[in-house]
Each structure stands twice: as structure tokens, then as C-alpha cells.
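Course assignment 3, question 2. Fill in each field.
Student: A.L.
Task: Predict the tertiary structure for the chain below.
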Amino acid sequence: MSQATNGPPFVVRSDGDEDGVGLNDQAADEVAATEALRADSEVRLLIDAGRNDEANALFDQLVAKVPPGLDPWTRAAILTRRAVAAWRLKRIPLALELAAAGWSDIDAEQPSGSFAADTLGRLGYLLEGIGHRRASLDISRVAVEVARTGHDVEILAHSLQGLAGTLNFRACELPEEEAVATFREAIPMFEEGLGLVSEGRVHLALLSAYGASLAGIGELERAEQTARQALALAEAQSNRWSRSVGHWVLSMIRRRQGALAQAIDYGRIAVEEAARINDTSLLQRYSEDLADICRENGDAVGEAAALRLNISARQMAMETLQEGLGQALEQRRLAIRAQRLATAAQEAAARDPLTGLANRLGLERTAPQLLKRALAGGRVPWLVLIDVDWFKGVNDAAGHAAGDAALREIAQVLLVECRGGDVIARWAGDEFVVLLTEAAIDHTDGFTSPVGAAVAERIRVAVDMHDWTAVLGATQRPTVSIGVATGQDTLERLFANADAALYRAKRRGRNRVEVHGSTEDSRDKTAPVSH
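Answer field:
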């Protein structure tokens, strides 16, 4: 048996509260929140009266208006109340969106106080509505515990009604002996809630649910008295939801008394009212039980009509769940898409658009972790710094488009001559960097094989021997000068050392490789040479 929007027979659960509920423990500067909650209460009163067109119109005016500057629990309370209203109005995608937003607001918060209890209670109601029944009962119990830490008796009463109504709901599905025990567990909660509030919407929901529990344990006289009191209040408040529940309690009482004709009459009124307020959960329960009573009374026509209503209600419930699932899948798709776009944006920010290599940012992001892993693995890194010789002359002779094409060609040469684990980056302009971190230390003599120098020489030769005709025609052929540095050091230090070696390569005639460590390094780098 599925959860009713405001509660099933013998299982009454209200989603409403009166104007100003939850504000007794709030500061005076939350007047805007008070007004928002009052307007939300008006929406729910219209829903319970079956005035759905008016409720939708007012809800549309409110749904996008959430007062700024609220603490997380106050904001979450407003959002989850509106989620329940949207659910009642069968605006399922919006209901799920509002509930998710409210839940997200308080996901990392420790629940405390009246607004926290109010939020948890409504989330429990919505979880019941989507079939997450164990979580619904658990969160309803927590809502009562948290409500006792607050100062708003109306919210505590509402939380008690939510939990007790859920227990009633469970009792309807249990064997007789277990059902009675569960009904008895719920009754003290209803009585406590009725002792806290003596009028208003929550009081009416409590009273209706209390009558259902009394009927569930066989106290039919008290149950009927309570149901008729609830019906009188429902008429005065134009509350069709409680009118539906009250008539169903009377139907169940007459069924237990063997007065099946009267049970059918009351049951039909309950079904009609549930249909008028578009409560598919109530409608499912009531139409199924009405069909059973009609069958017991030999009324085949009435049984068939009730079963048709039941099938229709169940189909509507299934469509609601399918719509919710569809929305969840769509949200997941959008989340994945957003994640991919964010990842692509990060990758684009770290990549050089001209050559497709990593850029300076990409190298600086990657290098620290690679260097750390190299050190931990007993490997020594090499940094190869490459500068195109006389590149300004290439640009001047062949044009900037040809110069860009030459840089792309050099990038391709680097990709061919380096290994898959090497990091290749365009540092700036006509400078490129290769970071190698796979060379193992020879612990016999404390040195490493000159991997970096060998790779650098291979790159130099490949550029020097490259066929540039298609890119530059008969223009001067570009060459590269390369500085190499090694050591278990930071990227900044490796780059500085490689740069010193690069300057020496430039001074010594270009188109050559120099490795940092020579005694001439300090002398050469004191007189910078144009690249």
C-alpha cells in the first residue's frame, strides 16, 4: 500500500501547517521568511480544499521567490514545503528539483531546532511518496527527535503526526496481531500531538489519524466519535483531504460492524474526495478497499467500478514514478555533461592551441607530482629546454603563418622522438620543454645514464634533418639549440639550470646541445644572448 499524500486510511499524514509555523524561535529580522511560509500555507490550504487551479496560480507566484540571507535550515524548510506542494499539485519534476535543492542546502549540517525538524519531516513524506519506505520511516523518527530540540510546538505536533501516520500506514500491511501492536505504538504520538495543538490544520490531521488508529485497535465507538469530530472540523475548514479520511474511517468502522451497505456509502464519499484533491495514493487505497467491501456485499457492479478506479490510480502513480525517474536520469545526464565540459575546459586551459602540446600551465600542474613520484621510485628527472634558432628571421622571411606551421612541425618532431611517458610542452613563443622522469639511478656509482642528453641530441638531429620544403619553401631552415639539466630537484630549479645550458649552446654557435654542470655555466649565463 503506497503512501498517501497526506495519509492513507488508518494512516494519516499531514504535509501542512498553519500561518507562522516555525517562526517562534526565529529572530525579528526573518520577517521575509515568515511571509514566505504564510504564503506557502495558503497554497496548501487551497490544495486541501480541492481548489487546484487557484493553488497552482498562487504557487507559480511564489515558487521562484526565496528570501535571501536565510540560514540553511530556514531556506531548506521553505524549499521542502514547496516541494510537497508541487508534489500534491502533480508537478513531479519541480517537486523533485525543490526537494533536491533543499536537501543539498542542509546535507552537511547537523540537524537541530524546529526548522530542521520541519525539513526532515517533509523529506520523509516525499521519500514515502516515491517508494523509499525504510528511509522515510527512519527520517520521520529523526524529525521527531530533532523537533524536541526546538521551541515550536506546532512543528513538533506535525512531526509526531508524520511519524505516527507512517506507523499506521505500516500497520495496514501487517498481520492482525502485528498490526494492532503498531497501531498502539502510534496512538501515544497522536495524543501527544493533540495535547500540543488544539486547532488548525495540524490539529485536524492529527485528529483524523487518531480516529484511524482507534479503529485499527478495535475501539470503534471512540474511533467514530473522533472521526465525526474531524469531519465537522473538515467542513468548517473546507478541508477535503480530512473529509476523505474521515469518511474512510467511518467506512472501516461499518465494515467491522457488518453494516456493509453503509460501509460502501462512506467508502464512495472517501474515494470521491480523494479524486477531487488528486491524491492518487489515497485513491489507490480507498478504491481497493471499496472493491473488497462491494465484493463482500455481493455488489459486482460496484466492485468493478472501484477496481477501474484503482487501476487508473495505480497507472497514474506509475506514470508519476516514471516521470520522476526520467527527470532523475535527465539530471544525471546534465550533471555528467557539465562534468565533462568542466574537465574539457580545464584541459583546454592547460593545452597550447597552436601545437596541441601542454602549455606552461599544464606543465606546472603536472610536474610536481611527476617529480615526487620519480624521487619515490629512485629515478632521476631530466629537463630538456629547446629554443628555435633565429626564429624571428623565419617569421620575417616566410610570414607568421609559415612560422606557426614551423612550430607545429617541431611539435610533431618532439612527439615522434620522445617516449609516451615524457611530458612535452610549449613553454612560450618558440621555446619547448621535455620533462623525462623514467631514468633510473645507477647506484653502483651514483650517476645516471645520460638519457636526457641522448634525447636532446636526437631531437636536434631530427629538426636539422627535417624536410621543411612544404612549410617554408626555400627559406632558411630552422635549427634548435638545447639545454639539458638533471637532478632530483624542483621544476623551477631544473628549468633555471637547463636555461643556463641553453645560453651556452647559443653562445657556442647554436644548433647544438649543452648539459648543465660545466664550469663554464656561471660565466656564460652572465651575458645573455638573444634567442
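Instructor remarks: The chain has a mean pLDDT of 83. The beta strands are 379-388, 423-428, 431-442, 447-448, 480-486, 513-515.
Grade: pending
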